[in-house]
């Protein structure tokens, strides 16, 4: 199964002008992708289009079927989205909040949820009220809710935004393991050009709504594309690892 975009363009009606221009790319299972670019380059909009949340010119296809042709429930069985921004905090425990990710399936996913809580060192939070958690803990629980949806495609918008550096590295490593070990496609919008490229498999770089690079993060072309997008030199590190 593959997720592809072809000549994808999009403009918000009130703002005018294209936010994205002729984006053609493909995303495969078993691969960890990072989408980078300056503020306003179209990263979050691209993620929403890939998820079928917005209509556009061009096409987004999942296994050769237009993403927008799926029912909401059917699409949510293939694509899970972790969006940015605040959400209404309901009076649920952590476990109940994570279980919300099972809404598209016929079972409550208790075994999966227990495994996620254990793997993400969150078992001690399971029965605590979600509203009482720290910002970083809430961010982690929201991610576990996305993972509990158990889809082949996981789309995440700035999942490391509320985390300290060590937690960011742990997150990147776990997402890498999910992509490689569970044959899932993880697509992450990210601003972190210092550490994240050490964990991703492929980098997509946007500038002013155009895709200017798609490939590995350690090539000379990647260095040139980052310099073009941000106006400064850059090179992928070779040492950012968890000890």
Strand order of the largest sheet: 6-7-8-3-9-10
Radius of gyration: 18 Å
Under the CATH scheme, the architecture of the domain at 1-78 and 153-159 and 182-235 is 3-Layer(aba) Sandwich
Largest pleated sheet: 6 strands, mixed
Task: Write structural notes for this entry.
- Helix content is 29%, strand content 24%.
- The chain has a domain of 139 residues: Rossmann fold (3-Layer(aba) Sandwich), CATH 3.40.50.300.
- The protein has 243 residues and is of the alpha/beta class.
- The model has no long low-confidence stretch (mean pLDDT 91).
- Helix 6 links the parallel strand 7 and strand 8.
- A six-stranded mixed beta sheet has the order 6-7-8-3-9-10, sandwiched between helices. Strands 2-1-4-5 form a four-stranded antiparallel beta sheet, with helices on one face.
Defining traits:
single chain, Rossmann fold, four-stranded antiparallel sheet, 10 strands
Concise overview:
The protein is an alpha/beta fold and 243 residues long. It has seven helices and ten strands. It has a domain of 139 residues: P-loop containing nucleotide triphosphate hydrolases (Rossmann fold, 3-Layer(aba) Sandwich).
Topology overview:
Layout: E1 2-10, E2 20-28, E3 32-37, H1 43-50, E4 57-62, E5 65-66, H2 72-76, E6 79-82, H3 94-99, H4 110-119, H5 135-148, E7 153-157, H6 165-181, E8 185-189, E9 202-207, E10 210-215, H7 220-230
Parallel strand pairs: 3-8, 3-9, 6-7, 7-8
Antiparallel strand pairs: 1-2, 1-4, 4-5, 9-10
